[in-house]
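Why does residue order matter? Because the sequence determines the fold. Keep that principle in mind as you read this record.
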Amino acid sequence: MRMEGALDLAGWGVVAGRVLLGSLFLIGGIHHAFIFEQVAKMMEANGIRQARILLAIASVFQVAAAACLMAGILVAPAALGLAGFTVVASVLMLDFWNSSGPERDGKLRQIQSNLSILGGLVLAAATA
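Structure:
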């Protein structure tokens, strides 16, 4: 039974979820500016050409899409774009199949985290 004037938990939950999920990408995109060369070198080590250009584009995209997601603007495209970004970044940077030992374990854990993030992004797009 729903009472008039009661807090719409589902609505607030969706907004809170979008803000929390978006903050991951917003902070990540901004953080790249402070560790740009380090990330670019990691990308180059993984065989990514034009790493600095791609990193700059990806960082700006992360910040813009995260801001849209958090503000409730173009939520579905922003969430799906971030999902695509997450898949591509995971495949390119978390090549656990080429690693062993603790490095492989760390990359696998990050892949598992990214799968959960993908789930949140799909939910955000579906509830837009």
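The helical segments are 9-34, 36-45, 51-71, 75-93, 101-126.
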